[in-house]
Amino acid sequence: MSETVLTTVNNGWTEVCLNRPDRLNSFNDEMHFELAATMKTAADDPSVRCVLLTGSGRGFCAGQDLSARDPRKLDGPPDLGHTLTTLYNPLIKRIRDMRKPVICAVNGVAAGAGANIALACDIVIAADTAKFIQSFAKVGLVPDAGGSWHLTQLLGTARAKALALTAEPLSAPQAQEWGLIWKCVDAEKLMSEARSLAEQFAMGPTVGLACTKQAIHAAESNTLDAQLELEAQLQYECGRSADYAEGVQAFLEKRAPEFRGFLNNEPE
Known about the structure:
With 268 residues, this protein is of the alpha/beta class. Helix content is 46%, strand content 15%. The strands form 2 sheets. Strands 1-2-3-5-7-10 form a 6-stranded mixed β-sheet, with helices on both faces. A 4-stranded mixed β-sheet has the order 4-6-8-9.
C-alpha cells in the first residue's frame, strides 16, 4: 500500500493527512480506499476520541482527480452516480455519524468534493490563505459529496446558488464571516491550533460530545417537540456515564476533571 493517506496516532486522537501533494491531494481510487479504511479504523477504535483531517503540501483537496476521467480515453460516459454512492457518500456519512469530533484543518485550496468533505466535518479551521471553490459548474456537474445540502443549510439559498452556479472562489476570511466555517487563522498557526483542539477533545467527555453532535445534526430536520424528546433521551444517556459523574465531582471538588471517554466507560 502506498502512502496517499498518512496517519499519525497520538494520545487519544488521530491525525489523518491526504497525501497526493503533486495533485493537490485530489482523489484517485487508491486514496479513496485508503481514506475509507483509515476513517473506519478511527471510528471503530474506542481509544481514538477525536480525528483531525488535513492535507499535505499547498492544498487541502482539489476533489476528484480528473486525469482518469478524460473522455478521449473512455469507451463511454463514466457512471458518476456510482462513484458517489460507493465512495464519496459513505465517507460523508461516516464523518457525520462518527461518535467523536472530526476536525478539518484546511491548509490551502479546497475545491469540488474536497471543499464539501471539509464542510461535512464538525469543526472547520482554515488558514487565512485557503479558498473554498464549488468548481462543479466549470465541468458541467452539480455540487456533490453533500455540497448542495451543506451550502444551503449553512448559508441559505441565495449564497448557495451563487457559489454553486458561478464557481467563484470563497476566501477563508469570507467563509468565516458568512458562517460556513468556524474559524480562520494565520496560516502558520493553523496546525498548532487544530492539534491543540484535537488534544482538548481527546481529554473531553466523549459520551457527551458524541451526543451533542447527534443532537445538533437532528435539529436540522426535527420539530421543536421532537428535538426536546431527543434531548431528554440523550441527557439520560449522558447522565448514566462515568464522565458525567466525574465532571460533577470535579466541579464540587474545585479541580480539573479527568474524563475517560468511551474507553471502559460506556453508559450502563
